[in-house]
Amino acid sequence: MRADRAFRLIVTRAGRAPALLADVERSDHVEIVEIDSGEVVLFWDCPPHAASRLARTLREEMALLEADEFLARWSAYEQASVDADADTP
Predict the structure, then answer these.
(1) By C-alpha distance, which of 52, 49, 57, 89 is closest to 74?
(2) pLDDT value at residue 20
(3) Residues of the chain below pLDDT 70
(4) Number of other residues whose CB lies within 10 A of the CB of residue 15
(5) Where are the domains of the chain?
(6) Which helix (H) or strand (E) holds 85?
(7) pTM (2 d.p.)
């Protein structure tokens, strides 16, 4: 089953302004929710512009990849971003 049939992408902006005009301190949320269970599978807090780019990329990949491939690929991305944050002082 393709990822766009198994998962739902939810982008929550922390303010009303679009990403281009948003305050740099704002943190938007990007979630991947499993449709069958309703549970959040992947979650990111990003600056507004990064959240927009991430959502665009996720939408494209959800349309192309199978659900298992998508989850494996983006779980690795999530772990890499967590590891990078842990290394930053």
Answers:
(1) 57
(2) 60
(3) 16-22, 78-89
(4) 14
(5) 3-87
(6) helix 67-87
(7) 0.79
